[in-house]
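Data card: per-record layout.
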Amino acid sequence: QVQLVESGGGLVQAGGSLTLSCVASRNIFSINRMGWYRQAPGKQRELVAHISPSGVTNYADSVKGRFTISRDNAKNTVYLQMNSLKPEDTAVYYCNAYVFNNRAYNYWGQGTQVTVSS
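The structure for this 118-residue chain is written out next.
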């Protein structure tokens, strides 16, 4: 079991920045992959970025060059630095922990709202 708590969402103007944090209830080095997803109204949840224990990252094309995912294993925390925000980035952002132990487990945080005004 992994509990995830996100923070850092809010309202920002287009072109601004926000940093999201996700604190896990256990050592994230033992988690196969940590990531951020988002869901806008009327749309499906989509991958934003994820990071492996060794620091290998993957980003959605829509956020490449603007968002950066990072991790602090000592703090059991994953971050999402979001720069040059656009109105289309408006969504609820969810932290995800993917664990494979004989089968795949996905754990989710409660979500944090990010609203970008034009």
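Known properties of this structure: The chain has a mean pLDDT of 96. Residues 94 and 111 are 4 Å apart (CA to CA).

See the next section for split statistics.
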